[in-house]
Amino acid sequence: MATLSGKDRKLCDALMQMGLLDAQGAEKAASGAKFSGELFSQYLVRSGTLSAADVSRAQAQADGLPWVDLAAVEIPVDVGELFPYFTLKDYGCTPFGDDGTVLKVAAPGRLPPSAVRDLENGSRRKVECYVAAEGQVQEALKLLYQGRIPRRFTRYELQVPVRVQFCSRLGKPIGAEISALVTLNISQGGLATFGMPSIPAEVARSIPLEAWARVTLEDPDLTVQALCRLCWTRREDDDGGNLKQWILGMEIAEISGPDQERLVKLCAKAAKTTDPA
User: Fold this and answer.
1) How does pLDDT run across 215-264, given as a tens digit for each residue?
2) Domain limits of the chain?
3) 37, 94, 237, 269: which is deepest, by most CB within 10 A?
């Protein structure tokens, strides 16, 4: 069988014990995940091998945690008052039950002990951890903070040459590198590009998006490189019904210290251009 990490190995064993995957299916999925550069769990769902619910149930068994179907739970809106939105987003979890003493929290897998401690200190409650499908966790968090998700960073507009190499989370390239002069809505946490001429078909078809991108901003004075997570894509029609260029929204996932410093300077430059006063 293709090599699986310790976490993926535990998930695979749980799936086989539950009768959701046989040896042949496990071999095929492990090889497919390695070839596509995806996580084992992501490949199982995207390829249609298993449903997101089945994978998350197996993940719960592998982690020794209870499983919850968030679609069947009425989440009290006041649990959204316990934490800032970005605290939960960064930890990849959502609260879904609270009795004043115990707070129930769902995540796609086991949370790090440090995250549990932070949640307990922040809520002054004992935290009980559950596993739920990743899509359900994200959707529940959006609904919980609907209409009041704050901006993490101030955004500025800037026109700059951009190079983009789409890739999987594990770095496998998707299509050829794309270069274009585009208009950015840029911040210290992410960017949106307006005017990308094309994107690979694999990325355009990816729903939900599972693409990442190595992005280089080539300002004449400041070059910035970062690994970004593609959050959304859009391609609008003009008045004649002709397809226009792509608009992409990306969140910065990894950036070096020197590049972060250059990004701050680039944002400051864009701020002066936007508001000379």
Assistant:
1) 999 988 889 999 999 988 887 655 555 657 889 999 999 999 999 999 99
2) 6-63, 70-144, 156-272
3) 94
**Phi-psi bin for 148: left (phi > 0), alpha (psi -120 to 50), beta?**
alpha
Is the pTM here over 0.90, yes or no? no
Nearest to 14 by CA among 58, 47, 69, 63: 58
Residue 212 buriedness (CB in 10 A; 0-12 / 13-18 / 19+) = buried
Q: How distant is the alpha carbon of residue 106 from its chain centre? A: 16
Considering only the top CATH level, what class is 156-272? mainly beta
**End-to-end alpha-carbon separation of the chain, Å?**
63
With CA atoms as reference, report the closest residue to 85 among 154, 155, 142. 142
Do the domains 70-144 and 156-272 sit in the same CATH topology, yes or no?
no
d(CA 191, CA 172) in angstroms, rounded, equals 22
- Range 70-144: architecture per CATH: 2-Layer Sandwich (3.30)
Beta-bridged to residue 227, according to DSSP, are 214, 254
Judge contact between 65 and 116, C-beta under 8 A. no
Instruction: Read off the pLDDT of residues 166-200 as tens digits, 9 standing for 90 and up.
Output: 998 888 899 999 999 999 999 988 999 998 888 88
CB count within 10 Å of CB 72 equals: 7
